[in-house]
Amino acid sequence: MEQALLALAAALAIGLPALATGWAQSRIGAAGAGTLAEKPELSATIIILVAIPETMVILGFVVATMILVLE
Amino acid sequence: MIIRMSKVEIVGPKGRLLEVLTRLGEKGILQLDDELFPLPGKEPPVKALLPDKKTLAERTFFLVLQEEIKELLGLLPAPPVRDGYLAPLPVIDVVAALVKKHLPLCREWNRTREVLGRELQELSGYDTLLQTFEPLLQKAGGDTSLEFIGVTIKDPALVERFRRLAAEETAGRFELETARTADGALVGLIATEKKMAQRLRRALSDGQIPELTLPKPYSDLPLAERGAALRARQQEVEEELARLSEEEERFARRWLPIYRRVLHWLTERLALLEASAAVFETGMCFYIQGWTPAAEVAPLRDDLEGRFRGEVLLSELVIREEDLDRVPVALQNPPYFKPFELLSRLLPLPRYTSFDPTTFLGLFFPLFFGMILGDIGYGLVLAVLVAVLLRAWPTGQNITDAAKILGVCAAYSLIFGVLFGEFFGDFGARRLGLQPILFERSQALLPLLYFSLSVGFAHILLGQILGVLAALNRHLRREALLKVLGILFLLLLVALVSARFVPHPWLGDTHLILALLGISLLALFAGGLLAPLELLKSVGNIISYTRIMAIGLTSVLLAQIANRLGGMTGDVFAGILVAGLLHFFNLVLGVFAPTVHALRLHYVEFFSKFLEPGGRRFEPLDRSHP
Known about the structure:
heterodimer; A: 71 residues; mainly alpha; F1FO ATP Synthase; B: 626 residues; alpha+beta; 6-stranded antiparallel β-sheet; 4-stranded antiparallel β-sheet; 19 helices; 12 strands; 9% strand; transmembrane (chain A); membrane (chain A); F/V-ATP_Csub_sf (chain A); proton transmembrane transporter activity (chain A)
């Protein structure tokens, strides 16, 4: 039972931030695509902006790993 | 790095201003600054140099002439011609008169070309239609009692509607044939009796179906002669156009070198006149103030003094605190760092008192890239790719720079691949007996996490130290103090975390926590409510470096999966194909993800600690750019 709860906790720790990251990237991506249509020279900046919300899922991944490894 | 700048003042007799500006434009190392005046101790009579009536008239004359020559050059073809070596000043009036004569001529040629071109286009359109109609006319058998009406049919679905309309108007006494023209349009030819034709034409007009009519001279001709007449005129127009082109080219070959030379001279001259707006004067002297790289001050002084026999003097001035925001910024990097300017160009230019981000990108970007990718096999593939890119584009600036950066990244990937014992994931360990020197990434998650956090701590600490230096450079003591508190906060935090692993005999948790609270309070008093939050932000910045572990782990796990799937096929060739495809996919991700995340760690985490954007780009007086 404990194992199952730990696995569920780890899944939530990475799953929820992954959803949040996806949602944030969809918004930034849409705005970025609009920006690129007018200013193609900003493509590198847009790539960076799209990568910023990935912090959430990366931290989620770390927490999930710690839940599983440090049990 | 940011080049050290000097503030200089150049003084000389007013009569030699234009010569001095010409020389400065040739040297291209001085940026004029008209906002440095008034100088302390140099109250009026030093005032901004106002152009006299003669200069104003000269400038207007040059501007008009420049526009006219530009128009003339735009109207002419550009065959390869020799360079012109004319000295324009003595003959500038003659040139102005010539332009006045040549411009209407060229305009007329241009207008004729346009008219003939339009006619040719129309004729070729009619010709296409006639060619389409010819078989239909032959089918009608040359019956002279019939009238032929040509129409354009926009939609093939309308053919039936059109047929019904014609049947109604002619009581079924008509013949309709359709065909497609060479450009794909659908056209129809109706043959009907002459007495019915008028009614049908009216009905077509009411139904807004456009009738195809030839222009007057051709519509009056018998049908059989129309095609030939059209083609004869087409040939005539083509010959006229060829004659015109020949004439224009002859003219261009004769006059282009002269006009191009004069235009170049005018651009230079106007640039100098423009620059004189940033000059100051007394009764007899001119004053120029500006910025030049410190290393160029002595050579420029010697050059001016030698060239003007001591009449023009250059002296270096002290940069005042209020001048710091006006110092222009020029970056100059050694060959290793130069390609990394490709990445630092994405950022706004730093202030003069700040640091050039290129140096740090050159040092840490490949390091982080290598830590994330860390695979001997992938490193070798990237090295080959770099060699191919450099061979294919030896001089293309951006691609070459990107290839050089990738080359350094490939080297770091190789180094970390050796440290982690990875060659295409676990292939090296399983088949070649490769052993990790540091640790095996897929098995040692916690050491990898601590490693990433340690790298983040060192990087952010460096950022904070640079922040202190940048604040001191700008004489912002309070900001420097806050940065120092930030450093202490981080050090104490690390001490607190490391006490979990190695307990210290006399430094207990309580002491450390009290010290952390004390620092937070000091920050609160020194920097206001947001200052303690700023301290915590640094902790968040360090945690962000765990992406080195996370993305690196993903990369190595994907590589292992590629090897396993390849092994599961049970066939050597299929296995190589499957594993190769997956490794290729992983390598593409392995280049993209580390690049984006290593950049993000710099732009968001590291540079936010010390980089001050808002620098003015160094734009020296260049006589070819007004």
